[in-house]
Specification:
Helix content is 10%, strand content 54%. By secondary structure, it is mainly beta.
């Protein structure tokens, strides 16, 4: 009788351990506007895959990047691998997660603007000149020549609140400026991949 109980008990232990560890299940994330295309996968073995935005001849494309480890907490997702470390802000929401993806912009001299210490002026994406921010001294902005509104710097240091005139939700992005270069961390809503 003891011989029959031992395999059953061992099977129960194995199944319980598998359930508690997620059976090798990964977290798979997609943009909320295209829920079937995975852009981020956090594997149970501690590895990760991220579809990075890159520009080839001014055209934005996705490039799959594999990471040997990741760390995720309430504020940041850090992906590490042979090419270095990528640290992105993130926050959990009821629908999924907001991931702040980084893009690099450079100050672009334009008539009517003088380079000061702040964000006022035109900032062009280093991958394509079709993506840019224009911030006026009066508190107005234009994004990519299409979206316009008012901006506010009265929140958390290093953040800009964009209030769009169109029927778009207000957006808070983060930025850092070094010389004529601005790194923008723009929020993207992610949902579990379907």
């Amino acid at each position: 009788m003891k011989v029959k109980k031992m395999p059953v008990f061992a099977m129960i232990l194995v199944l319980t351990a598998a359930l508690l560890t997620g059976c090798g299940k990964a977290e798979s994330w997609a943009y909320n506007f295209d829920e079937t295309k995975e852009i981020l996968r956090l594997n149970s073995d501690g590895t990760a895959v991220y579809q990075a935005k890159v520009f080839v001849d001014g055209i934005q494309k996705k490039e799959e990047r594999k990471y040997t480890s990741y760390k995720k907490d309430d504020s940041y997702l850090t992906l590490s691998g042979s090419d270095g470390e990528l640290k992105m802000r993130c926050k959990t929401t009821d629908e999924g997660m907001v991931l702040y993806e980084k893009s690099t912009y450079v100050y672009t001299p334009r008539e009517g603007y003088e380079r000061g210490d702040g964000i006022v002026g035109v900032w062009t994406n280093t991958g394509t000149d079709r993506l840019f921010y224009e911030f006026s001294e009066k508190g107005n902005f234009m994004e990519d020549g299409v979206f316009v509104g008012d901006y506010f710097l009265d929140g958390e240091p290093g953040s800009i609140r964009l209030d769009y005139y169109d029927d778009l939700p207000d957006t808070i992005l983060y930025y850092t400026i070094e010389g004529d270069e601005m790194i923008v961390e723009y929020p993207w809503d992610l949902v579990p991949t379907k």
